[in-house]
Amino acid sequence: MKILVIGVGMYVTGRGTNTFGTIFPSIIEFQRINKIKKLEVIFAGHNFSNIQKSKKKVLKALKISKIDFSKINFKVSFYPNKKNKKQTYKDILKNEKNLSCAIVAVPDHLHYQVINECLDHDLHTLAVKPFTIKTSDARKLIEKKNKKKIFGLVEFHKRFDKHNLLLKNTYDSQELGEPLYFNVEYSQKKIVPEKIFRKWADKTNILQYLGIHYIDLVYFVTKATPIRVLAMGQKSWLKKKKINTFDSIQCLIEWKTKSNIRFNQTLVVNWVDPNNSSSMSYQKIKFCGTKGNYESDQKIRGIKIISDDSDFQEPNPDFCQSFCFDGRYTQWKGYGVKSVVNFLNGVHKTSGNKSKFSKVFDSNCSNFEDALISTAVVEAATKSLKNNFSWQKIKL
Questions:
Q1: Strand pairing of 248-256 and 262-273?
Q2: Per-residue pLDDT of the chain (396 residues; tens, 9 = 90+)
Q3: How many C-beta neighbours within 10 Å does residue 166 have?
Q4: Angle value at C-alpha 66, between 313 and 345, nearest 5 degrees
Q5: 181: closest CA among 268, 283, 261, 289?
Q6: Which strands, in side-by-side order, build the sheet including 392-393?
Q7: Taking Cα atoms as reference points, which of 388, 387, 363, 391 lies closest to residue 377?
Q8: CA distance 124 to 119
Q9: Is 157 helix (H, G, I), strand (E, B) or coil?
């Protein structure tokens, strides 16, 4: 099995952080479970310098995982692999034989281009969120994917979080009654736009990059249709740092259920939290229905760590957490891991048989068609931001 990973940043390898990211640890766990006799992972980055930094992360992750390489052929390669030669993912797509699938983790504004080229080469594709920036581009990818009978997923991992699965189960049981409103607060540290994503932070916004998770979650839980959206935002701290994007965005989304019940979602997001915050992400949701409420503080998972050597921490062990067993080896567990492993399991179990592909995936997955919904909401919200914070109809 041969996996092409396009992108080598924070989410893939943990570059720029003290973690190992999510995507590569998930690939390690996939191999630990399936013990494929020959697995090759090809990383395609943007430049040689970033590749070198990510390579160190990857090799260390493999070392501490301590998979028995005498029994398993686990190969990793990196491109560009020479300082003076610029090899791109396009070269790999063109020249590499027998690729099984692609995982796309590039800046938001490049998603359509890269996913499209992966589909052109008949690759089953998993893309990190957002799916695309424009609904017109999303529709093109859906059409191409269906024509080629290729399976495409968008990595909305919050669908696998037990906190959110409990919400869905409670909603489906009608215990909460008809929906009235859904409130979300979601934010991340300043280091994300200022340092980690500085080169492209002004080509996205915090709603598109982060808040889209909880737009997809409302659709996942309720299967409602978004009708219209109003968004407003503020540019202050990041603008002073010469990054032309919103510090914070607040939006109101109107949804309609299949039984024509209308409800509102209030979504408040920012990425200017203090860097000494106890967690990378602050996230809190509340669902209010005619028969009851559901509240989930997804930042506070009940764990607090404080020591002389580090700041106060409230880690999330449910997302992508490394666990060391008797000092012998490390495993990664969590809903972020499960989301990626689910895709790879589907590719492996079908062995290229496209007719079986739709039968092997967890029903929690977001396919391209599902992801069109959140793309349409964000596109309309961005239009609202550009048009004096006015209401915009959502076109599906």
A1: antiparallel
A2: 999 999 999 999 999 888 899 999 999 999 988 988 899 999 999 888 889 999 999 999 988 888 776 677 889 999 998 876 777 899 999 999 999 999 999 999 999 999 999 999 999 999 999 999 999 999 999 999 999 988 899 999 999 999 999 999 999 999 999 999 999 999 999 999 999 999 999 999 999 999 999 999 999 999 999 999 999 999 999 999 999 999 999 999 999 999 999 999 999 999 999 999 988 899 999 999 999 999 999 888 888 888 888 888 888 888 998 888 877 778 899 999 999 999 999 999 876 565 555 556 667 889 999 999 999 999 999 999 999 999 999 998
A3: 12
A4: 85
A5: 289
A6: 293-297, 281-289, 179-189, 262-273, 248-256, 225-234, 392-393
A7: 391
A8: 7
A9: helix
Percent helix, strand and coil across the chain, each rounded to 5? 40, 30, 35
In DSSP notation, 167-189 reads: HHHHHHTTTT-SEEEEEEEEEEE
Q: Identify the residue whose tokens are 């590719």.
A: 347
